[in-house]
């Protein structure tokens, strides 16, 4: 009976030490010694993986929070682009940059801590052999946890870099959309300005023609003179304002296109009448010699400052003349 109780107590002790393990082959697990160094590693890992709000005990995943905020800002920027969202995007970019720097500092801290805990860090002959062996026994478990912590920090840093690129692209896209919307607002402002410039000087004319001319003595005109002049003028000015505001680019493009067509047709006519395209009878006798008229020669000489001619026959081998020396000075 006593032996059975001891076995049950041993099983209970093992279950308490390994509460999360439910495998049947628990005999394979070994218990490694730990010290204050391992507890500090666990504390650093918990601070990174499970941060808390300052006022409540709720956990906060910083990387996931930044990812959710970035997704919400991108959706809002696409659906409803506004200038004030630039401030929100810039603030989130600053937060992600600060978090990325913090993660880099944490990685350097963990690496430095790993270097200090390594048995090779101690100079030879300065540490007791028993303490060095004890340090080697505990360093294996500590090394695995430190490497896992470094890998987790590196992955979070890469995630923040991706979020920064997404935020930069979001800001650029929203800037382009706002510029397109501002172009439409600019057209409406252009129409309003055009109408104002036309009708402001005509306010006196409209007030003059809008008088009650029926009751004026010795005046054979009535109110019809106002409507006959005001309605066509209003329609004309409104039409011109709409064309100037919304179709002015098309009008200017058509104008320049027609001007280029006329210019090109004029150039083609000049080329057809150019004497350079006609070869004279002298070209048949002199090989590869281009006959230029006096007009074309003068034009080319005035443009380029030289005249191009072929002297001699191109198929004959040209022999350089002998040097005759300097003539008498």
From TrEMBL:
Keywords: Membrane, Transmembrane, Transmembrane helix. InterPro entries: CorA_TM1_TM2, MgTranspt_CorA/ZnTranspt_ZntB. Its main location: membrane. It holds the Pfam family CorA. GO terms for cellular component: plasma membrane. Coiled coil: none annotated. The chain crosses the membrane at residues 191-212, 224-246. It is a multi-pass membrane protein. It is found in: Cell membrane. GO terms for molecular function: cobalt ion binding; cobalt ion transmembrane transporter activity; magnesium ion binding; magnesium ion transmembrane transporter activity. SUPFAM superfamilies: Magnesium transport protein CorA, transmembrane region. Signal peptide: none annotated. This is Uncharacterized protein. It comes from Fusarium proliferatum (strain ET1) (Orchid endophyte fungus).
